[in-house]
Amino acid sequence: MLALSLSGVWMSVRTGDETSRFSGLEVPVLRYALIAAVGVIALGVLGEGVLLRRWPLSISAVGGAVVLVVAGLLLLLEELAASLVPRSFLPTSVRRLTLDVYGGGGIWVAVLTSLAVTTGSRIDGGAIGVARALLAAVERLPVRLLAMLGAGGAGIGIAAWSRYQPWAGGSAANQHVEVPGWSLPLIGPASLAAVLVLGAAAASLVVRWNLLAALVLTTAGWLCSFLGAATLVAASTLARVEVDRFLPGVVTGRELSVGPRWGAWVMFAAGGAVAGCGAGIVAWLERQSR
Amino acid sequence: MSTIIGALVTILLLVVAVWLAVFGGVGMLLAPRRGRTRVSGFLWGALLGPIGWAVLTLHRPGAMRRLPTPRPLARETPSSTDQPSEDSDVGYF
Predict the structure, then answer these.
(1) Residue-wise pLDDT tens for chain A (290 aa)?
(2) Mutation target among A198, A222, A236 for the B interface, most CBs of B within 10 A
(3) Chain B partners of A279 at a C-beta cutoff of 8 Å?
(4) How far apart (Å, rounded) are the C-alpha atoms in residues A104 and A125?
(5) What is the 3-state secondary structure (H, E, C) of chain A?
C-alpha cells in the first residue's frame, strides 16, 4: 500500500484555472529517498521478520519513520505554501494568477501507512498486535462514549474533507472561480491545525478517558466551526456590497458577484457537531467521577 | 445600513451563539462537581472560554480553608531582668 501510494497524487499546483498534479515518483530528489525507504521496509520485513524471526523489527521501523518524516514535512509545507507566498510584492498582473500548492490523496495515504508501519514494527505481533490493541481499547469503551466518539470521528472526517471543498466563490462576465477552504489565507492553515488537533484528541480519548482530551476536542471543534463561520460572515458581507456602484461604466453590467459556498457551511456544521460530541463526553466523564 | 445589520445578525447567530453554547454549556457541566452553581459555571465559560474552564477545573473549593491555621505564638512572661527600668534608656533605641 505504501509503495502504491507513491504513484498517487503527492502535490497539486493550481495556477489560475489549471491544476497540475504530481505523483510521489515525480517529486525531484525526494523520490529517490522515498523509493529507498520503501525498499528498506520491504527488506526489513523479509530479512528480520520472515528469515530471522526477530520481533520487534528495527530496520523497517527506521524506513517507515523516514517516509513518515519526509511525507509529513512535505504535506505541511504544501499546506502552508499558499499562505507563505508574499502576494503584496507581486506585480498586479501576476497577482491575479493565484498560485496554490496542496497535497493529494497519495501523500495522505503515505503518511497514514508509514505511521502504521512504524508503529506495527515496534509492537509485539506487528499489524495484528496493533489491531488487537485497538480492538481491546474500543471494547473497553462504554457504549455511550463509543457512540459519541464514533459520531465525533465521523465529524472529524467530514471536517477534513470539507477543507478541500469550495468555501467561497465569485463570478464576473461568465467567469466563475471557487476557492477551497485550504487555500484561504490564515483560515486554510488554521483549519489544518484544528483538524489535526481533533484527530489527536479523539485518539487520546480512545486510549484513555481524560477530561483534558475531551475539553481539547470541544475547543478544536469550536475552532473548526468558527473558521467556517468567519468565512461565511466575510463572504456574505461582501456579497451584500453593491460592487457595481464603485466600478467604472465599462465594467458594470457584467454580473459581478461574491458569496459563500457550501464547503464553509459543511465545516461550520461538522465543527459544531464535534464540539457537541466533546461536550457530551465531558458530561459523561463528570457523571462517572461523581 | 441594511448591510451592517445583516452582517451583525449573521455574526450574532454564527459566532456569538455558538461561543455561548459551547463554552458556556461546558462551563455549566464542569461547575457542580467543583462546588459552584451552574450559572457561575456558564458565566465563567461564556466570558473567558477555555480560560474560564481552567479556572473552574483548577480551583478547589475551600482550598484556603484547609490550610493549617497558624498556632498562636507562645507568650513569654517577661522576667524582671528583661523589663527595662523606668530610669534606663533601653527600649528607646
Answers:
(1) 888 888 888 887 776 667 788 888 888 888 888 888 888 888 888 887 788 877 788 888 888 888 888 888 888 888 777 666 655 555 555 555 566 777 777 888 888 888 888 888 877 766 677 777 778 888 888 888 889 989 999 999 999 999 888 998 887 767 787 888 888 888 888 998 899 899 889 888 887 888 999 999 999 999 999 999 999 888 887 777 766 666 666 555 566 677 888 999 999 999 999 999 999 999 999 888 77
(2) A222
(3) 22, 25-26, 29
(4) 32
(5) CHHHHCCCEEEEEEECCEEEEEEHHHCCCHHHHHHHHHHHHHHHHHHHHHHCCCCCCCHHHHHHHHHHHHHHHHHHHHHHHHHHCCHHHCCHHHHCCCEEEECCHHHHHHHHHHHHHHHHHHCCCHHHHHHHHHHHHHHHCCHHHHHHHHHHHHHHHHHHHHCCCEEEEEEECCEEEEEEHHHCCCHHHHHHHHHHHHHHHHHHHHHCCCHHHHHHHHHHHHHHHHHHHHHHHHHHHHHHCCHHHHCCCCCCCCCCEEEECHHHHHHHHHHHHHHHHHHHHHHHHHHHCC
Tell me which chain A residues have a C-beta less than 8 angstroms from the C-beta of B23. Answer: 222
